[in-house]
Design brief:
By secondary structure, this protein is mainly α. The chain contains four helices and no strands.
Length: 74
């Protein structure tokens, strides 16, 4: 039961992180109007997203994600 719950949570998280990274990449031009501090913090967001996505690309976690019911809906 807990493994199934973990698989679902990982699948949703992985999908949301990838979607957010794609959206931010598409909106990159809008960041040119931000203050230097805001641009720096946005860079931290990009770094955090990349690290989280990379962490979820572990074979064992990907195996769990593929087992989730949510993953089957993608």
């Amino acid at each position: 039961m807990l493994t199934s719950l973990l698989a679902e949570a990982l699948a949703v998280t992985f999908d949301n992180l990838n979607m957010t990274a794609s959206i931010l990449d598409c909106a990159k031009e809008a960041s040119e109007d931000l203050s230097p501090e805001a641009r720096q913090r946005l860079g931290l967001v990009h770094t955090g997203l990349a690290m989280a996505i990379q962490a979820l690309e572990c074979d064992e976690l990907q195996h769990l994600i593929r087992q989730s019911e949510v993953y089957c809906d993608f």
